Structure formats: structure tokens, C-alpha cells
């Protein structure tokens, strides 16, 4: 049951031209035909690696696992999903921040954006975002994983769509801009979700009869080619959302609406050209995973043969040979009871080959890298140590991380920001900041552990330059004038994603430095004046003593001072 299928800002096209249902149905069917070459690979990956994934239309039990004898791929996929989760979108810490695009963010604007970022982070934590995004990461071995984002009464709701249930298409730049989805629902569920008035007559009849028959609900999201500017309503929005019941009359829709932002960001692993579907770790590990299942099954059979070998014994008749472990074959020629054949297998050699193949599967899933990156969170290794030990692997994974940030997380956060902004969840802005933020585009910066590990090379360069300058300055002090300490600190602060309120602007810092220098000069002037006063005090006292002595009639002092009647009494 999909209870949030239509929980999006959709509305009826009242008094407006309705999209042609027949055209939408043809486009919908074409999208599913276009994905057919990929289905074989997806089902193979599910069969030999991830048996509990996928939602295909075939009437088979989901999660078939008859071919799974070795769970290395399944475990590696769990490590991969957990590694991407803790590396890119960790629930326990801040992993993104907001800034103004194209220039340095002023401190006042930075504080406002930090406040909005905190609100977004809180909304994500209160919603089902981290559960849904983990499911997306767990589906990435198939190549891609969509995430639906809808406004809800309590904020924002997210939905992961399993492999096999959707079809995609891209625009001329290769970005996914069309999403088609099939889901089977009962009549009661359809009426509960879309309302009885919007349901086809066949659905209303089935609900009235309390029938358990399933109906296929189709959902198509695509660019709004008929968008009309200057008007309110769904037909003026960049994307349109269409729901209908498969097989219903061609003029009937369950719901019609529009979206301001792309509502279904798709996480993709490795893309070739303009293809909408990607290739994930499961594709590259498939051959080794098949080999693992065969070797594991054969070695188990060989071990069982060694423990319970098929036996042969004498008898009057000779039925067909029983080669199952513990089986008995009656042989008229046999002398007594003995094994049917001697099983000699070098188990150690086969086990070594299995371990070698398991390691190849883990490398395909980057499991060893993510286990090492996980130690950042546990404090066992610093980000710099991770960078130094896994620089080559990070470079290999770098394009995947960049694609996930650009194609998946960026539109996800943009969609969440738009929903919260339209819902009035952000505090009102001062007029001057509202004008500034209204003119500038807000960009997203990532400060997750994995993003920081990739940025560590830049931070190391800064630290090494500063350390080298310190060494050179011991012999040539003038070299320190070459370093712009303010700019260096700004770059370091931005790379680690520290809060905007933490640093003053360069202008503020220079004003403070000027005030400190002025205060220091005043202190030095006061100290010099005080020293002069202190030096003048003994001289003044000595002069006073001489004057007093002369006035007391000391002729020598009077004469030395040039006073009249020196050496005599009163005239």
C-alpha cells in the first residue's frame, strides 16, 4: 500500500485545459518499453546479489534467494549503503550549509542562512528522510534510486521507489527530468487517497462491493510543456503531475497538479552518455557474484560427498546410480559395501579462490574504503590519515560522490527549502537582508565526513605552506610578509564548513586591529608621560630643598644660586 502517492501540491485543473490523457499514456508506455534492456541485468543482480530488493510485475515472490550460497555481495551492499549514509548524509551531525552563490557571504546573511539550515536539518531529522535515503543508497548497486519528496501536514515526507517499479527519461543535458511509476492498489486505497469523486466508475463499484481486486495506478511527472506564465495554478508550474488508473476511460484522471521543483531526485552511480539509467556496483560485481555462488555450492557438495559419499553394494539387480550424498547404488559386481567413487578435493585451494573472489566483490562495492572512512566518526583515525591512506580510492569514488551531490542531494535540499519557504517555516527577514537574499542565489555547500575527506588535500596544502613559511622565517623573517593571514583563515574556515558567526569580516578585523594599535599608542604615550613625570619629581624636590636652604641663610647656596647678599646678613 502506498499511502503518500498523491501527497504533493497537486490541484484540479478547474476551468483550465486538461492534458491529453492518450498522449500521456503513450509516453508512459514508451518509457517502460525503453527500460526493457536493463531489466535483465536488474533481475540478475537481484538473483545473485540482492535477493530482497526490487518490485517487478511478474507474479513471483519478492526476494527469491534460491541461488544465494554466499552473502558477500549482500553484506558489501549493506556496508556501501551505510558508508554513503555516514559519509554524505550522517543523521548525527551537520552535513550541509547554505551560502550565497558567486561571492563571499556577508556575516549578517551568513547568520540568517545558518538559521535556515538549522531549520532544514531539524525538519529532515523529524521526517522519514534518513530512512528513505538509506533505502536509496541500498538500491544504488542497481545503478540508480529515486526519492520522492512531498509536502505533508507535519512538514516534508519522503518515499523511496524500489527498482522495477519506475521508468526514467532525461533532458538534452543528461539530467533526469521525467519519472513514471506503477503501483498496484485496491479500490479502497485509491478512494482513500484520491477521493471517491475522482475515481473511475470501475473503482467505485469495486469499493462498493468490497472487492480485493487490484488496480494499477500510473503516475507521470514531466516538464510542463504547456506552461503559461503570469497565471496561478498547476499549469503555470515548471513540472506537471498526472495520476490515472490503467485501463480507465481516456478522459479521466485521478489527480492533476504541478510542482515548483523537481519532486523525484534520482541518485545515480555511473552514467554513460545521456542514458537515464546508470550502472552501479552490482553490475561490476555480477560475474564474481555468480562465480561465488557456484564455487560455494560446489564446495558444500564436495564436503558433503566426503562426509556422506554415495555407496555401492552387491545385489541381484542394478538400478540407476544414486549419486546423492548418502545414497546407495546396488551393483551386482561390487564386493561388499564401498563408496561409489572416491571424492578427492583440495578444499583449502577452493576456499582460497573463494576468498579472493569475495575480495573482488568487496572492492567493487568499495566496502573496504567505507569501513576505513567509518573510523573518522569513531575517532580512531583523523580525516588526514584517511586521506593519506585512501587517496587513490577517494579519487576513484570522487566522481560518484560529485554526482550524488550534484544530481541527488542538491535537488533534494532545493525541494525541501522551497516547501518550507512556501509554508512559512522560515522566520521573516529584515528588509535589507530580504532584498539582498532575494537578488542572490543560495548555493549548497557540503561539509559531510566524505566531503571533508575529499577537501583535506586543500587543507593539507594550507598547513604545509604555513609550516614551511615558519621554518624559512627563522632565517629570513621578511618572508612572513608574503602570507595573507586573513585570506588563509577565510579559505580554511570555508573548507571545513564552520558557522558564519564564528569569523568576523576582514573589514571588521582590520577596524579592530586599528583600534588596538591606536589604544596601544595611547598607552605608550601615557607610559612615556608618566615616566617623564616620575623622572621630574626628584629634580623638583631637589630644587625645592636648595631654595629652602638658601632662604634659611646658607651663604654658599645663595651665592651658587645667584641670590643677592650672598655671604652676608640682612642689609
Could you characterize what this model shows?
There is one protein chain. By secondary structure, the protein is α+β, with helices and mostly antiparallel strands. Helices cover 50% and strands 13% of the residues. The chain has 16 helices and 13 strands. The strands form 4 sheets. The chain has a 5-stranded antiparallel beta sheet. A 3-stranded antiparallel beta sheet has the order 3-2-9, covered by helices on one side. A 3-stranded mixed beta sheet has the order 11-10-12, with no helix packed on it. A hairpin with a 5-residue loop joins strand 4 and strand 5. It is flat and about 160 Å long.
Largest sheet: 5 strands, antiparallel
Enumerate the spans where pLDDT stays under 50 for 5 or more consecutive residues.
Answer: 1-13, 566-571
Radius of gyration: 39 Å
From the N-terminal CA to the C-terminal CA, the straight-line distance is 131 Å
Share of residues in strands: 5-15%
**Helix/strand structural class:** alpha+beta
Spatial order of the strands forming the largest sheet: 4-5-6-7-8
Q: On the 0-100 scale, what is the average pLDDT?
A: 80
Number of helices: 16
Helix-strand pattern: HHHEHHEEEEHHEEEEHEEEHHHHEHHHH
Per DSSP E runs of 2 or more residues, the count of β-strands stands at 13
In short:
The chain is an alpha+beta fold and 571 residues long. Helices cover 50% and strands 13% of the residues.
Descriptive keywords:
571 residues, alpha+beta, five-stranded antiparallel beta sheet, three-stranded antiparallel beta sheet, 16 helices, 50% helix, flat, disordered N terminus, disordered C terminus
Amino acid at each position: 500500500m502506498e499511502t503518500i502517492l498523491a501527497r504533493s501540491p497537486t490541484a484540479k485543473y478547474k476551468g483550465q485545459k486538461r492534458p491529453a490523457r492518450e498522449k500521456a499514456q503513450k509516453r508512459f508506455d514508451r518509457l517502460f518499453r525503453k527500460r526493457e534492456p536493463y531489466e535483465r541485468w536488474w533481475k540478475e543482480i537481484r538473483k545473485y546479489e540482492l535477493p530482497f530488493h526490487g518490485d517487478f510485475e511478474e507474479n513471483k515472490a519478492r526476494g527469491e534467494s534460491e541461488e544465494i550460497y554466499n552473502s558477500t555481495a549482500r553484506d558489501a551492499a549493506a556496508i556501501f549503503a551505510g558508508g554513503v549514509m555516514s559519509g554524505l548524509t550522517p543523521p548525527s551531525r551537520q552535513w550541509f550549509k547554505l551560502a550565497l552563490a558567486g561571492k563571499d557571504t556577508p556575516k549578517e546573511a551568513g547568520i540568517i542562512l545558518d538559521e535556515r539550515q538549522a531549520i532544514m536539518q531539524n525538519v529532515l531529522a523529524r521526517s522519514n528522510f534518513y530512512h528513505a535515503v538509506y533505502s536509496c543508497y541500498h538500491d544504488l548497486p542497481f545503478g540508480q534510486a529515486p526519492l520522492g519528496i512531498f509536502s505533508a501536514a507535519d512538514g516534508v515526507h519522503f518515499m523511496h521507489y524500489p527498482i522495477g517499479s519506475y521508468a526514467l527519461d532525461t533532458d538534452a543535458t543528461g539530467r533526469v527530468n521525467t519519472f513514471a511509476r506503477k503501483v498496484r492498489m485496491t479500490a479502497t486505497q485509491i478512494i482513500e487517497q484520491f477521493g471517491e469523486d475522482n475515481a473511475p466508475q470501475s473503482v467505485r463499484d469495486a469499493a462498493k462491493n468490497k472487492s480485493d481486486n487490484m488496480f494499477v495506478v500510473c503516475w507521470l511527472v514531466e516538464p510542463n510543456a504547456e506552461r503559461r506564465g503570469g497565471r496561478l495554478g498547476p499549469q503555470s508550474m515548471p513540472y506537471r503531475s498526472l495520476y490515472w488508473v490503467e485501463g480507465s476511460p481516456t478522459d479521466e484522471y485521478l489527480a492533476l497538479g504541478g510542482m515548483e521543483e523537481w519532486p523525484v531526485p534520482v541518485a545515480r552511480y555511473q552514467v554513460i552518455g545521456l542514458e537515464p539509467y546508470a550502472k552501479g556496483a552490482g553490475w561490476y560485481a555480477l560475474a564474481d557474484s555468480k562465480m561465488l555462488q557456484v564455487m560455494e555450492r560446489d564446495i558444500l557438495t564436495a564436503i558433503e560427498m566426503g562426509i556422506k559419499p554415495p555407496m555401492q553394494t552387491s545385489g541381484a539387480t542394478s538400478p540407476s546410480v544414486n549419486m546423492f550424498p548418502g545414497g546407495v547404488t546396488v551393483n551386482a559386481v561390487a564386493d561388499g559395501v564401498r563408496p561409489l567413487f572416491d571424492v578427492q578435493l583440495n578444499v583449502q585451494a577452493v576456499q582460497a579462490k573463494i576468498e579472493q573472489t569475495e575480495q573482488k566483490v568487496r572492492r567493487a562495492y568499495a566496502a573496504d574504503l567505507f569501513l576505513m572512512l567509518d573510523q573518522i566518526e569513531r575517532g580512531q583515525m583523523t580525516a588526514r590519515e584517511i586521506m593519506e591512506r585512501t587517496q587513490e580510492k577517494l579519487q576513484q569514488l570522487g566522481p560518484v560522490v560529485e554526482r550524488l551531490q550534484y544530481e541527488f542531494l542538491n535537488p533534494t535540499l532545493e525541494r525541501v527549502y522551497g516547501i518550507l519557504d512556501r509554508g512559512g517555516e522560515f522566520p521573516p527577514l529584515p528588509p535589507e537582508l530580504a532584498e539582498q537574499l532575494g537578488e542572490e542565489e543560495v548555493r549548497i555547500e557540503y561539509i559531510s565526513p566524505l566531503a571533508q575527506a575529499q577537501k583535506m588535500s586543500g587543507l593539507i596544502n594550507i598547513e604545509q605552506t604555513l609550516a614551511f613559511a615558519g621554518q624559512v622565517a627563522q632565517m629570513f623573517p621578511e618572508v612572513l610578509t608574503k602570507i595573507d593571514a586573513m585570506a588563509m583563515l577565510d579559505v580554511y574556515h570555508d573548507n571545513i564548513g564552520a558557522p558564519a558567526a564564528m569569523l568576523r569580516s576582514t573589514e571588521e578585523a582590520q577596524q579592530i586591529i586599528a583600534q588596538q594599535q591606536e589604544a596601544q599608542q595611547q598607552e605608550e604615550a601615557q607610559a612615556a608621560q608618566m615616566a617623564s613625570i616620575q623622572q621630574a619629581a626628584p629634580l623638583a624636590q631637589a630644587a625645592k630643598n636648595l631654595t629652602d636652604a638658601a632662604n634659611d641663610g646658607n651663604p654658599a647656596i645663595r651665592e651658587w644660586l645667584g641670590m643677592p647678599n650672598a655671604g652676608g646678613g640682612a642689609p
